[in-house]
Input
Amino acid sequence: MKDKVDRPVDLQDTVSHWQEVLDIRFRQFLEQATALNLEEAERHLLVFSSLLTVRLDIQQGHLQTLDDGEPIQLIEADHAILRNLTARTRHSLDRISAADHPRSELINHLNTFTKLMNVLRNHDLRIVDAVYGNIDQVLTKKANLDHADRMNEAMLNAMNPQVH
Output
């Protein structure tokens, strides 16, 4: 997996790259959780959660520059749902770790994991259509690259979250 990116071509390329990284990180969590490698699953979930939080914060900043409307309201609702599902996923992993029969407990929580993945994928489509699909028309080339650079820096920093 390529975590370090060259100077982005534009903000759309950067957004696409980090969507892919986020998807990979979630799949790594899911692979470890379903194999009951729970310490590794926790590590991957921490990175995923850190990346998602930074990404949602960046998107929220971009939303502030747009006119309010139905797509923006749906995206903001997605953000709340994603934050809630991420917290529920953390709680599910804690429950699996504490269970006498972790495999049975895992089965009870698979729906939460898949729901998070599905909401994230639908959100990715919505955010690209509503915000990043026409970003070139809104930003100058320099501003586009500056936004991409700031996103890359924030996301790279999120790749090494601190355990609290």
